[in-house]
Design goal:
This protein is 40% helix and 13% strand. It is of the alpha/beta class. Strands 3-2-1-4-5-6 form a 6-stranded parallel sheet, with helices on both faces.
Length: 205
């Protein structure tokens, strides 16, 4: 009998500690964390600092940094153990990210179990970005599950809002959060993926 439960990941700040690296290498100029913002919204913020900055220049610089970050930033401790358990327990597994498909690929290649269904919101402009739930709903459809059968793991406020709006059970990972960042609205908060592994079997969908 096919599984009727799904687990969908956000990527940045959940699977990989990339947001910390983005903030140190680049986004410190904006004096705000990069958590949850789309690539195009970040471009608009940088354009306020440098009105002559073109999208082509901005995206080329981001791509340069992205290869370094997604190939070198540490994976979140426990991610391979969590994926192993999800596979063992026959969860359908997906990923929704504001990063590009190429950036997702860099991370997927480092995982013990590549995630079978992944969606880049950046590369699907017809889908609205977070906090709208379009991406999560699209992946649920691909996985053949309903929201009530789905767990979503997020870290940012916009991500949590998107996940909650989809109707899924929402978990917030706080491990990589900057100081004084406290997003609201999750069903469960965990400090680490190892802590999530303790609670996973008790979650009732």
């Amino acid at each position: 009998m096919p599984s009727n439960k799904a687990f969908i990941f956000d990527m940045d700040g959940v699977i990989i500690d990339s947001e910390t690296w983005w903030d140190k290498l680049w986004f410190y100029q904006l004096r705000k964390p990069s958590l949850g913002y789309s690539i195009r919204s970040n471009y608009q913020d940088f354009k306020k600092l440098n009105p002559r900055l073109t999208w082509k220049e901005f995206f080329a610089k981001m791509n340069q940094q992205a290869k370094i970050i997604y190939c070198q930033a540490p994976l979140t401790p426990g991610i391979n153990q969590l994926l192993r358990k999800l596979v063992k327990d026959k969860y359908k597994i997906g990923l929704v990210s504001g990063s590009t498909s190429n950036w997702i690929k860099y991370v997927q290649e480092r995982l013990e179990y590549p995630i079978p269904v992944s969606l880049s919101l950046h590369d699907h402009p017809k889908l609205r970005t977070k906090p709208v739930p379009d991406g999560y709903l699209a992946v649920m459809k691909q996985l053949g599950v309903k929201a009530k059968e789905t767990i979503i793991l997020e870290d940012s406020q916009m991500g949590l809002d998107s996940a909650k709006a989809s109707g899924a059970y929402v978990i917030c990972l706080t491990e990589h959060h900057p100081k004084n960042y406290h997003p609201q609205g999750a069903n469960l908060y965990v400090k680490s993926l190892r802590e999530l592994l303790i609670y996973l079997d008790s979650i009732q969908l």
